[in-house]
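Why run this: before we spend reagent on co-expression, it is cheaper to look at a predicted model of the complex and decide which construct boundaries make sense. The entries below are exactly what would go into the expression plan.
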Amino acid sequence: MLAKQVTVFIENREGRLCEVLEILKENDINVVGASIADTSDFGLFRMIVNEPQKACDALKAGGIMSKLTDIISVVVPHKAGSLEKVLKVINEAGINIEYMYGMSSQNSDAAIAIKTEDLEATQALLEKHKLTE
Amino acid sequence: MIWNEAKECMSRDEIESLQSARLVKAVNRVYHNVEYYRKKMQAKGLEPGDIRGIEDLHKLPFTTYEDLNATYPFGLAAVPKSELVRLQASSGTTGKPKIAVYTRRDIDIWSECAARCMTMAGITRDDIIQVGYGYGLFTGGLGAHYGAEHIGALVVPMSTGNTQKLVTMMVDCEVTAIACTPSYLLHVAETLRDQGLLDKIKLKVALCGAEPWTDNMRSQMEELLNIKAFDIYGLTEICGPGVATDCEYHKGLHIWEDHFLPEIIDPVTGEQIDSSEYGELVITTLTKEGMPLLRYRTKDLTSIDKTPCECGRTMARIQRFKGRSDDMLIIRGVNVFPSQVEAALLTIDGTTPHYMMVVDRKDNEDTLEVQVEVEERFFSDEIKELEALSNKIKATLKTAIGLNAKIKLVEPNGLVHSEGKTKHVTDNRKLYEK
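The model came back. Tokens follow.
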């Protein structure tokens, strides 16, 4: 299903990540998935949280710029080949994956957050293959 | 050795009466041939007859970069275009470069002045000299080239950009002299050292200019290369390298007062002050035909010593520069104004993001880092988008200022936004003597 991701631009300096998380904690926001993409100068901290808009507002109030982006979350059961199955479908449709990372799901299964070059087409594709939760 | 003893060693009285005679002629020439100057003089209620000698210099209007911009490209030319044989240019504060045009006689006088400088540094017709300044619109390459040819030295026109070839030819061709920026010479020296070639060179003398440097850098390069190093001063608007150089006593740079009339002003009030006091150097060209300039404000801060020099020359000496009265930076010999960077950033997305230029010198090479705040409109959740932004900024700046800058994207509000005029430059180099 489509979900909102919170992306934060952070400079590579000590303690910056903690400052972001501190703001989220103080606003009672739960982080259920996170990844960092880094270059030598800066990083992008991407998160799935329970209240995305509230997270953005809280970060903004704390002087940290963030952005909401659509991603697709897909449940992948804890068994061999379940992640491959999802990616294979996307790959065979010729859709390019921009990035992907793990997140928790509502139940005991795992889940992934995926950003592709065409989210709508991806979502339709996954529905067709009954891969959405 | 002195190239032109008759001129370089005139008595102060002779110098001043020659300057007065030439100033009167120069003022007449610009009044009658350059409409822009005529109007400027008329606005001050001045006629050529009001200027009877150098004592009247203070009455004349200044020429600034804004005047060059307003008359760009040929509005200050005092001769028909058919008389012009050369155009040189350097960076201006905004899009338009500063242009200077020369007649054949201007080039001859420039060569004569550069030849005096070369000779003052001990370079003769027996020398083989590598010119390591850029050839092109920048006056460094061609100015040093013509000066060296004029004294009959063998000129190797290296230009810039290939240190390995320069080093190889320096050894193979037994080069004895070099003209380049001081920071580049230190870079060359380190390359020679790293390749174990320091005892293979025949270099004796270096004539360094186009950027400020310190006595500390001089002793560093003299020691490392076992040479004598001299400072040469010039600026595109006046003629490029050859305006002034220091002699072996290193007590300031002798300025060729028979061609360039120097004075010192208070940069804030514009009042002429005693030239032995620190202030802004202002130069009036006395013999220029192509683009004569009245009281050109160099923005360089210095003072002038007119006392006799031990070398025998009587021409006044400009003292060590203490900085500039504007915000121009000289990075790898290239003049850069923060306003150029600002204008270039404006083209990226229509409004200027907050930015900071950080200039440093690492391993004797100037570095420029431009930090740009990633504002919401630039922000993306994808690294490749941000890298594309960074590359676009880099390419835009390269076109605008001619330098490769390292671009560093920083968080919004990551830079200091002071009230009023934001500070846009951090220069960590030690270029001026304290």
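Chain A has two domains: 2-69, 71-128. The first helix of chain A runs from residue 16 to 26. Bring this page to Monday's planning discussion.
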